[in-house]
Amino acid sequence: MTTEPVIAQKGPFAVEVEEGKRYFWCACGRSKKQPFCDGSHEVTDLKPVKYTAEATKKVFFCGCKRTAGQPLCDGSHNSL
């Protein structure tokens, strides 16, 4: 099993989220439904990260899968 995530894209995914709704961010980078989980992590040791929207607004989910603030972008893609 692998624990190294695949870079889905070298930048964040801007997503309009709805207050109170739960989202499952893809941590492995293999999902075809980026930035969200589609179950592709089953071949890895990685698991999706649950995110519950505190407000209806645009958020930036990490696309490079290297963020320290999972699941949101912290700018880590700038050093890739």
Automatic annotation (TrEMBL):
It comes from the Bacteria. It holds the Pfam family zf-CDGSH. Residues 10-47, 48-79 form the Iron-binding zinc finger CDGSH type domain. GO terms for molecular function: 2 iron, 2 sulfur cluster binding; metal ion binding. Keywords: 2Fe-2S, Iron, Iron-sulfur, Metal-binding. GO terms for cellular component: cytoplasm. This is CDGSH iron-sulfur domain-containing protein. The lineage of its organism: Bacteria, Pseudomonadati, Pseudomonadota, Alphaproteobacteria, Rhodobacterales.
